Amino acid sequence: MTTTAKRHKLHDLIDAVGDEEIEKLYSILDEQLVNRYKWWEDDEFVAELEQRVIDVETGKDKGFTWEEVKENARLSRQVK
Fold this sequence. Notes:
- Helix content is 75%, strand content 0%.
- With 80 residues, the chain is mostly helical.
- The chain starts with a helix and ends with a helix.
- The mean pLDDT is 88.
């Protein structure tokens, strides 16, 4: 069964079950999917974040203003 078919089947099953089953399914999925990656426990990721903060604070990386970010996003949508 393809991933798309599985998604459709899951939607159909969710639509067919009662409130109690929805609560159980939600609890299982929430625990499995939302809590899967704990970035704060990933030493490499945390080190990268800390280095980026240092780079911005020391001027090594000038960063972007919020206005620049919005403008870049607006321009990238126009190109596509």
